Amino acid sequence: MNNRLGTSIVAMAVAASQPSPGRLEILPSVAALPPDIVGRFREPAGFEKVPRGPYYVFDRRGHSVHTVGERGEDLRTLVTIGGEEGRLLDPGAFDVAPDGSFAVADAPGGRERIQVFGPAGIRTGGFTRAGTMAPRVTIGPLVLSGVGSLVYTGKTVILSEPDTGWLLTEYTPMGAPLRSMGLPRRTGQEADAEVHLALNAGLALPEPDGGFYFVFLAGVPAFRKYSAKGDLLFERVIQGREIDPVVAALPERWPRRRVGDREFPLVPPVIRTAAVDPHGRLWVSFVVPFTYVFDADGEKVRTVQFRAAGIMAPSSLSFPGGNRVLVTPGCYEFAF
Q1: Which of the residues 27, 28, 41, 117 has the least number of beta carbons within 10 Å of its own beta carbon?
Q2: What's the half-sphere exposure (Cβ side, CA atoms, 13 Å) at 296?
Q3: CATH number 3.40.1500.10 is the correct assignment for the domain at 44-276
Q4: At a CB cut-off of 8 Å and minimum separation 6, what does 263 contact?
Q5: Single pTM value for the model
Q6: For the chain, what are the domain ranges?
């Protein structure tokens, strides 16, 4: 066989075996926590696993954090409800570091608080954000006011803070700011500061090369990629026929909702969650049950749906390694 022809045939076969961004893939669940354990949680809003360690479950409505053994047994409660230090009240965000330490954002007495815990649930650090937090507004699993996005690396805490004039800020576990990066995007709503801030809230996600993705949760779906030094590498607007109806329905003016003695614009999200896999690919899940996967250059390479008891819209994604992804609600595991 002609070597050039043989090489072409092999290349065509390899290309044919690769997922196509235009073809919808259904990922069936391959494992899950036992139903009798999942049934004890009021709202599992975070599901992560550490290397050679247990699963961690953040129960937002239960104001608690738990671990479950690698075989789906030995449920342990690490942190319980309470306003004092070392407990949780009105939590909104959670993340686990590879060593099993974790951080939670909560809001006792209307003050935004970040707490850091060791693997056994003992508080090791934390800080309270300056000022009084606006009353928490939620839609389903999504927190629309206060700290709704938190990343904990084991050494630093990264928050989405558009109200500071930056998209994200990195702190020590005791609250000393280390750096901020990312200027807010133009929204056309600059005259309404609260709407403008809501359209700049998002998820700050570290990627393997030391940089960050920032995924905007509301308004026109988009994400940015920053270098480890904080330089903007690129911005991508997210498009696809699966989300066209959602984007087309975006309003030009947002209704307001009274929470306590104040009114706030109700800016529902377009994106429910996002995460970066070990290969540096960005996974973005929408309010409709579709997830797009983007490569390191920001190009869409896959369109997937997760199927467990039925097709599900993820409220959180995490990657424990081994081409597996953990998804809530339901605490399911999928192979990709």
Answers
A1: 28
A2: 10
A3: no
A4: 256, 257
A5: 0.89
A6: 44-276
